[in-house]
Amino acid sequence: MLQNFFRHVAAAVLCLWSLAALGQSGVQPPVRIALIESLSGPLANTGEAVFRNLVWAAERINARGGVKLGTGSRLLQIERYDSKGQSEEALAALRSAMDDGISVMAQGNSSAVAATLIDAINKHNEREPGKRVLFLNYSAVDPMLTNEKCSFWHFRFDAHADMRMAALMDVLKDDRALKSVYLIGQDYSFGQAVQREARKQLALQRPDVQVVGDELHPMARIKDFMPYAFKIKQSGAQAVLTGNFGNDLTLLVKAAKEVGFEGKFYTFYGNALGVPGVLAEAGVGKVIAVADWFPNTPGAPSEAFYQSFRQRFPKPQDDYVHMRMQLMLEALAQAVEKAGTLEVAAVALQLEKASVNLLGHKGEMRAADHQFQQPLRVAVMDRQGSAGVKFDVEGSGYGFRVIKTITPAAAQMPHSCKMQRPIG
To answer: What are the chain's domains?
Structure first.
């Protein structure tokens, strides 16, 4: 009941924004995008962070007149559907969104949920060719989603886990003082993929590094990570390598700090959602993260981009911005305009050719597997005001300095996708 209330309140607010622009000549009903995400429960902070990003991206596109279509234009509107982080709830949300007439779905904060949605959308689109839907994925990074499970209807705008791991390893391999590492992750498809690739890359690039711990834990169910932290410290590990996100990462690093672990953290998501504030001084020079973009990415365009977001969302706890989510909606707008229609197959054909550039950050969709190709960056935590750290994270006084940039050509990886495109 509550989730529907909040969903409709959010939709109403965005609709009022849209209606205010209906006085413009040629503006038609909005293009609606269903955000299917954890908006309640232990991972709600991750879903709300996505919502803010997509709302901001939609507002920017709407401010310039929306998506041009024929002789008129359409504004973008984000609507909320709470999956609670569960696959069955996500399927129910998908059905609700389709019943509400929405044809563009967005999800990303669980690869297991993403895989379930891909299967459901494939079946629906085959069964109901007149009511097809698209799936825009901003964060579900299990490599299988654009390999063996690739789908014409699914487009991933984040680098997958193997790409992220390769970028991290580009830094870890040069850390010659590192001799032991502890692998820990969430026990589902993404966490398992991270562990596999970590073992593979360590064996290839740093066979001298000993893996002194290798375990998976239940996702979003552990409230006390002290037992894990004790094992990490007792193992003698000099570093932890993890793909954890949300509370599973924040609670892990908090426990590690409390038991006195002084090693490094090589992370996929250690640059936000409470981690810098929890570690504080203990994290300086020791937390390494990989992303498509960081607030301290060098250059005036990047700085302007980040400052604009902070003006829109000034609360410290709302400081979580992702370039890829902005590029995702820019790519959708571009695809609709080039297709000249909202018919889903036509939009998908244009989306797989998308090439977008926002304030100097460029990205292109690879048609063969629908894996977005863009730069990746690795950064290390440091005090705000130190060289390369103009901006902190979440008001913590600590930010991330970019130490390596990987070009799209260097970041890309081969795929095993055998794309099945619709006939007619």
So the answer is: 2-159+303-311+318-373 (3.40.50.2300), 162-291+375-411 (3.40.50.2300)
